[in-house]
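Database export, one record per block. Field names are fixed; values are copied verbatim from the stored entry.
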Amino acid sequence: MAVQDAHKSRAKRGHRHAQWKRKASLPTLSTDPTSGETHLRHHVTADGYYRGKKVIDKATAAVDTDE
């Protein structure tokens, strides 16, 4: 079984444990420049826009899912 040479100091442990607040924050939102819609960063908006360009056409996507 592996055994560490020396234990971590309280300061090192504290730096590691201090990351919980960053992970517990709210998700970062972004506004699309074309549609003005608020969405999660790096995700397509509900209207099908990503970075100001139409990438998903809702009318065609609805027809494809009916098959």
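Remark 1: Residues 27-67 form one domain.
Remark 2: The two ends are 57 Å apart (CA to CA).
End of record.
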